[in-house]
Specification:
This protein has helices spanning 9-18, 25-34, 53-62, 75-84, 111-124, 140-144, 156-161, 166-182, 198-204, 215-224, 226-236; strands spanning 3-7, 39-42, 66-71, 88-91, 128-133, 150-154, 186-190, 208-213. It is of the alpha/beta class and 238 residues long. The longest helix has 17 residues, at 166-182. The protein starts with a strand and ends with a helix.
């Protein structure tokens, strides 16, 4: 079964909007685990506009499921990975000021950079490494040359096209997933997956190991309740 990792950035955004510690990011993460999630994802950014370094340090020893830390591999990010020792590191080519992740790596152009970063992560931790990737069948073999374990398919284009033509929207992802499997890579996915499109995506992307979902899940929880929402997303992946 495909695993569900819940991105809790939006929980931290809500807390930071008011100050104080409501909602409690750590307690919410523990509750999400208890509600059935298979992992917790965070994407700390340099300005700490949502997840803070202190959150990452508090979460690491407390979580019982897989801890996935996303981010651009700056020296500070790599130092945090070395200190925290998460289960998975997802490398994302974010500029510091972007609102949310909006592009995947070009593994052909940045192969040497990624290989160097992954070598550093491997020498300093036991973390599994995943590379955020656009749906492009030309990319997985180049990604494999970096030494990564997995790719994470950037699914915004799928989500945007799903309502008008689901088959056309998912086709590049199916093709890229097949190439990733051929290259010996595991497959993750994330960005704008929701209760309407998740099952279709899972059924049409072979070898999908994990999805990371935050904004849609937290938004749904406002209406449906957090426990119920986590379990609804899990059912879409069965």
């Amino acid at each position: 079964m495909t695993k569900l990792s819940v991105n809790i950035n939006k929980i931290a955004t809500l807390r930071n909007a008011r100050g104080g510690n409501t909602p409690d990011v750590l307690q919410t993460a523990l509750d999400i685990e208890n509600f059935g999630a298979d992992g917790i994802t965070v994407h700390p950014r340099p300005d700490e506009r949502h997840i803070r370094r202190s959150d990452v340090l508090a979460l690491a020893p407390a979580l019982r499921t897989e801890f996935n830390i996303e981010g651009y591999p700056t020296p500070d990010f790599l130092a945090l990975i070395k200190q925290v020792q998460p289960a998975q590191v997802t490398l994302v080519p974010d500029a510091p000021d972007v609102l949310t992740s909006n592009n995947g790596w070009d593994c052909i152009k940045f192969r040497d950079l990624l290989r160097e970063v992954i070598d550093t992560i491997r020498s300093e931790s036991n973390a599994r490494v995943s590379i955020f990737l656009n749906p492009d069948p030309a990319q997985p073999f180049a990604a494999a040359e970096t030494g990564t374990d997995r790719i994470e398919l950037y699914t915004e284009a799928f989500a945007s096209g799903f309502a008008s033509d689901p088959q056309a929207a998912v086709r590049p992802y199916t093709e890229t997933a097949l190439k990733a499997t051929e290259a010996g890579l595991g497959i993750n996915a994330g960005h704008d997956l929701n209760l309407l499109n998740l099952r279709f995506f899972k059924e049409n992307v072979p070898g999908l190991l994990e999805v990371s979902i935050g904004h849609a899940l937290v938004s749904d929880a406002l209406y449906l309740g957090l426990q119920n929402t986590v379990q609804m997303y899990k059912r879409q992946l069965q």
